[in-house]
Amino acid sequence: MPRYKLTIAYDGTEFHGWQRQEPADAPPLRTVQGVVQEAVRDLLRQPVEVVGASRTDSGVHAVGQVAAFTADVRIPLARLAQAITARLPRDVQVLTAEQVDDGFNPIGGARSKCYRYTIEHTSHPHNPRPLFDRNLVFATPYALDVGRMQDAARRLVGTYDCASFAQVDHGRATTVRTVFDCIARSPAPRRVEIEIAASGFLYNMVRIVAGTLLEVGRGRIDAADIPRIIEACDRRASGPTLPPQGLCLRWIWYGAPAAQGATPEGARADGAHGDGAHGDGAHGDGAEAHGREDRNTGNEAIGPASLGGDACAEW
Q1: What number of other Cβ atoms are within 10 A of residue 33's Cβ?
Q2: Is 245 in a helix, a strand, or coil?
């Protein structure tokens, strides 16, 4: 039977993460996978299994989650995304639907991903905390030096052991990953965006990176200390794990393999590859949930080209 790929956006505030959770002694928890799978089954009248690429945590958002299923679909492909969305709650949307090869694997086939973490710093007494987008950003009362944060962010690029930026109980056989790009920028007064594109992410990795860069912005960690933190391979060497609401999964790229060190046009992390969401619906989370992340260790992954300071542009 044919296989289909969905690109999904969601506001993760009211979800217990992506992965379906069905406790033996309690009703099923509300998850993104659960509601999407229910909508697809209701539409197709088939026992479809929807598999997602990233197990985002509770409160984490996405504009470029990727999922796939195999089914006999009689609905015109041009109408499939809209037909599924019509059966979903208002905090989830299927942005695109396309037919793919029968062997398409949304987890193992991913070559790189991009996450964004958004921070609002409200140090001045007349700067109120975020209100209408409070579920999409993390608010800190401390003033942040974005220049120092960017200096530290660029030092995170490379292939190395990321154990200092993972929860101790990450459960992975290897903690080596390739970070293709990492930036910190200020798109508006008091607002900071941290964006990171990598071959894969460990449990809470993006939220720990964001917490480390926040400490740099506060002046509690020096940008020059980043290599030392990486070399320590010790969770205690890095900054705090920031809350989930500031995190957003921006896109997942499924480019073809190329020569070592190559940066093909399709691998650009600015959205030009065409695999991600084409809107600015939900904001999102970058950290992978416990027990799941890209299988690429980085050596074989093809990453984004140099982005000139924009790892994940608005689409």
Answers
A1: 21
A2: helix
Average pLDDT estimate for 233-245: 97
Q: Which two tokens stand for residue 257?
A: 């393999």
Per-residue tokens: 216: 């740099």
Residue 266 DSSP class: G
CATH placement of domain 3-100? 3.30.70.580
Cα gap 54→292, rounded to integer Å: 7
Distance CA 26, CA 30 (A): 12
pTM of the full structure: 0.83
Task: Tell me, yes or no, if 57 is annotated catalytic.
Answer: yes
* Residues shown for the chain: 315
CA dist 15 and 25 (Å) reads 19
The fold adopted by the segment(s) 112-267 is Alpha-Beta Plaits (3.30.70)
> Dihedral, CA atoms, 105, 42, 27, 106, nearest 10 degrees?
10
Q: What is the pLDDT of residues 61-78, one digit of tens each?
A: 999 999 999 999 999 999
Looking at 11, 25, 42, 57, which residue is catalytic? 57
Secondary structure of 194-239 in the HEC alphabet? EEEEECCCCECHHHHHHHHHHHHHHCCCCHHHHHHHHHHCCHHHCC
Residue extents of the structural domains in the chain: 3-100, 112-267
